[in-house]
Amino acid sequence: MAASRPSATSATNKIFQFKLVLLGESAVGKSSLVLRFVKGQFQEYQESTIGAAFLTQTVCLDETTVKFEIWDTAGQERYHSLAPMYYRGAQAAIVVYDITNADTFTRAKTWVKELQRQASPNIVIALAGNKADMSDTRAVEHQEAQVYADDNSLLFLETSAKTALNVNEVFMAIAKKLPKSDPAAGGGSAGRTRAGVDLQDPPPSGRGGRCCGGGGN
Question: What reaction does this enzyme carry out catalytically (predicted)?
Answer without folding.
Answer: GTP + H2O = GDP + phosphate + H(+)
